[in-house]
From TrEMBL:
Stated name of the protein: Iron-sulfur cluster carrier protein
Keywords, alphabetical: ATP-binding, Hydrolase, Iron, Iron-sulfur, Metal-binding, Nucleotide-binding
Family matches, as CDD domains: Mrp_NBP35 (cd02037)
Sequence positions that bind ATP: G50, K51, G52, G53, V54, G55, K56, S57
Quaternary organization: Homodimer.
Keyword Calcium: no
GO terms assigned for molecular function: 4 iron, 4 sulfur cluster binding; ATP binding; ATP hydrolysis activity; ATP-dependent FeS chaperone activity; metal ion binding
Natural source organism: [Ruminococcus] torques
The protein's role, per its UniProt record: Binds and transfers iron-sulfur (Fe-S) clusters to target apoproteins. Can hydrolyze ATP.
Pfam families for the chain: ParA
């Protein structure tokens, strides 16, 4: 294995428990890819989940909307290459334009800049059947070849789990922090800990946890029904010493914004009151 591969992303903790500890002579190597020369990005925030289907894309877009409503310049990199959902949420169906200098992200109605594989495909319904290294290469290009312009925040919607693409993003992009999205189910503790453990090993701060599908509010009596059972997110967050940023119900109003492709007008009252 190449020296860079061995050391890049090693944290002090992972070095301490590594089989090569004490004998490893290699120095840490910065594997970050160069940002496109027409980009200036102040903060990169990854949105991760230990498993699929927890509403990670919805939380990514909600965080982007929250910062956009505060007046920040915001971008979303849809790194969920095989399951891209961000452009549709914002009603974007055009193709991104490329120039000699790079690719221009598409702009949503609220000014959010978006790049996704769906904005590069002739047919947005065509499946992406690419092997891991090709997908990882595309994600890197979203950083090196996309002309993001001046952004205060770039949110990266990661594919679920702790596989190849999250690893590429963590190694190639200067990620300032991650937000973990989860749902209140049996396996949640184990799954959140996996996502948390990966960020820690990569030396990336965990900014907090968002619980989605926490409850459903009865439209008649207002009672909160815990469809997936009682939440344990507060205990898990306390155990990991990270804040809970929000608990989101399954909300038909939010689902409708997505369905109508009008997320650029969406407000998510369940994710407010914190700084990123
Ligand atoms: N709190 C919520 N209220 C209403 N609808 C929601 C909520 N959370 C997610 N949804 C809807 O559920 C669907 C799946 O959400 P989303 O695409 O964000 O999941 P995901 O975690 O990104 O999926 P995957 O990880 O498998 O790619 C979307 O149609 C989304 O609009």
């Amino acid at each position: 294995m190449a020296e860079e591969q061995k050391t890049a992303g090693c944290s002090e903790e992972s070095c301490a428990s590594c089989a090569s500890a004490g004998t490893c002579t290699s120095k840490k190597v910065d594997m970050h890819e160069p940002m496109n020369m027409y980009s200036s990005i102040k903060k990169v925030i990854g949105v991760v989940s230990g498993k699929g289907g927890v509403g990670k894309s919805l939380v990514t877009a909600s965080l982007a909307r929250m910062m956009r409503a505060k007046g920040y310049n915001v971008g979303i990199m849809d790194a969920d290459i095989t399951g891209p959902s961000i452009p549709k949420m914002y009603g974007l169906h055009e193709m991104a334009v490329g120039t000699e200098q790079g690719i221009l992200p598409c702009e949503a109605a609220d000014g959010t800049k978006i790049m996704s594989v769906n904005l590069l495909l002739e047919d947005e319904e065509a499946p992406v059947i690419w092997r891991g290294p090709v997908i990882a290469g595309v994600v890197k290009q979203f950083w090196t070849d996309v002309m993001w312009g001046d952004l205060d925040y770039l949110f990266v919607d990661m594919p679920p789990g702790t596989g190849d693409v999250p690893l590429t993003v963590f190694q190639s992009l200067p990620v300032d922090g991650v937000v973990i999205v989860t749902s209140p189910q049996d396996l949640v503790q184990m799954i959140v800990k996996k996502a948390y453990g990966m960020a820690k090993q990569m030396n990336i701060p965990v900014l907090g946890i968002v619980e989605n599908y926490s409850y459903v509010k009865c439209p008649d009596c207002g009672k909160e029904i815990k469809v997936f059972g009682e939440s344990h997110i507060d205990e898990i967050a306390a155990d990991l010493n990270v804040p809970v940023l929000g608990k989101m119900p399954l909300d038909p109003a939010i689902a409708q914004m997505v369905e109508e492709e009008k997320f650029s007008e969406a407000e998510n009252p369940y994710l407010e009151g914190f700084e990123l």
